[in-house]
Amino acid sequence: MSSVQIQCIRCKTMFRDRAGRLQDGYSRQCPCCEVVLFFAEDSQHPFIKRAMRSARQVRKELREAEAVRRAAPQEPRMAPRSRSSTGRARVQERSE
Ligand SMILES: [Zn+2]
């Protein structure tokens, strides 16, 4: 779910890696041809750019989902009608 698809720049194999790891400066080996892929924000390679972009997108979605979860934990229901008990005189017991 939180992984992105990466395509090897050499053998074109598609594989997946965690979006959280796929950041600027990250590198990993292709599971197929073992070439080392370097992930940099300023990479000119379209496969790398695409992987970086989708990783950023996934991380953004995760952050937003997390923010939504945190913003609405279990808010106490706001009752719009605040019914103040109309002066119902309490029966006072007089002790004589
Ligand atoms: Zn490869």
Number of helices, counting only DSSP H or I runs of 4 residues or more: 1
Instruction: Please list the strands of the largest sheet in the order they lie side by side.
Output: 1-2
Work out the strand percent.
15-25%
Radius of gyration: 29 Å
Reported for the largest beta sheet, the result is: 2 strands, antiparallel
Shape: rod-shaped
Number of strands: 4
Low-confidence stretches: none
Q: Which sequence of SSEs, written as H and E, runs from N to C?
A: EEEEH
Region (Disordered): 65-96
Observed structural traits:
single chain; 96 residues; alpha+beta; 4 strands; 27% helix; binds zinc ion
Question: Which helices and strands appear, and what pairs or packs with what?
Answer:
Elements: E1 3-7, E2 14-18, E3 26-29, E4 36-39, H1 46-71
Antiparallel strand pairs: 1-2, 3-4
Bound molecules: zinc ion.
The site of zinc ion has 8 residues, from loops.
Description:
27% of the residues lie in helices and 19% in strands. The protein has one helix at residues 46-71, and strands spanning 3-7, 14-18, 26-29, 36-39. It has a two-stranded antiparallel sheet with strand order 1-2. The longest helix has 26 residues, at 46-71. The relative contact order is 0.15. The model has no long low-confidence stretch (mean pLDDT 88). The structure holds zinc ion. Residues 65-96 are annotated as: Disordered.
